[in-house]
Amino acid sequence: MAQNGTESTSTYLYDPTILSQLESSAFHAEYKDGVKPLNPGENFKLRPLCLEDFDKGYLQLLGQLTSVGEVTKEQFEDRFNKMKACDDSYYVTVIEDTSVNQVIGSATLVKEQKFIHHCSARARVEDVVVSDVYRGKQLGKVLVDVLVALGKKLNCYKISLECKDHNVKFYKIFKFEATHGQNYMQLRFFD
Ligand SMILES: CC(C)(COP(=O)(O)OP(=O)(O)OC[C@H]1O[C@@H](n2cnc3c(N)ncnc32)[C@H](O)[C@@H]1OP(=O)(O)O)[C@@H](O)C(=O)NCCC(=O)NCCS
């Protein structure tokens, strides 16, 4: 983390100080260097994705969500740098258990620039996952709560997501609701 000198700010996918400006009720402790300790006494840190997370089990965590495939460190870094170059677009937010140096939760907010709604932007919640051994500790709630606060802070006019039936109840906690007459449709090219 930035505070112990092992990671520099430049390796963050997005500016971590934005996290310290969020109006989020899901966590209470003070920020340090824009990186959030979730609760006093715990080793969970909320922060943007870092380049170093390749070695902290990030892709293995995503593997609990869907198929990831074989991704080399070079491919990971290339994709990370492309996302970082799209300024103000990719807000991949993770929770690290610093006692084991592992990323144990992740959720992404993607900001999409629009011409509509007075050249506004919309946000999409993607790839929400908490490691199976850490579930039930309110970490998923913290992640989604932070993304909602982030979407507001980034002046998005709405946030949307797609989820399986069994997760609808989870997202209702944050006041997401299905819209009558709207359909989620897809054309899938490969898994
Ligand atoms: C969905 C997921 C992220 C939840 O993470 P988590 O850290 O276990 O959830 P939390 O501990 O923060 O749960 C917060 C609350 O939501 C409830 N909850 C959690 N998962 C739920 C679900 N699938 N459906 C309904 N309620 C759920 C919890 O019971 C808890 O309620 P409480 O506040 O009354 O105790 C996690 O189960 C996961 O990673 N699942 C596999 C990947 C996945 O399906 N991701 C979603 C893709 S759309």
Automatic annotation (TrEMBL):
Record-annotated N-acetyltransferase domain positions: 44-191
A biological-process GO annotation: UDP-N-acetylglucosamine biosynthetic process
PROSITE patterns linked: GNAT
GO molecular function: glucosamine 6-phosphate N-acetyltransferase activity
Annotated catalysed reactions: D-glucosamine 6-phosphate + acetyl-CoA = N-acetyl-D-glucosamine 6-phosphate + CoA + H(+)
Domain of life, per lineage: Eukaryota
Metabolic or biological pathway: Nucleotide-sugar biosynthesis; UDP-N-acetyl-alpha-D-glucosamine biosynthesis; N-acetyl-alpha-D-glucosamine 1-phosphate from alpha-D-glucosamine 6-phosphate (route I): step 1/2
InterPro entries noted in UniProt: Acyl_CoA_acyltransferase (IPR016181), GNAT_dom (IPR000182), GNPNAT1-like (IPR039143)
EC number: 2.3.1.4
Keyword annotations: Acyltransferase, Transferase
Transmembrane segments: none
Family: Belongs to the acetyltransferase family. GNA1 subfamily.
Entry-linked PANTHER family: GLUCOSAMINE 6-PHOSPHATE N-ACETYLTRANSFERASE
Name of the featured protein: Glucosamine 6-phosphate N-acetyltransferase
Upper lineage: Eukaryota, Metazoa, Spiralia, Lophotrochozoa, Mollusca
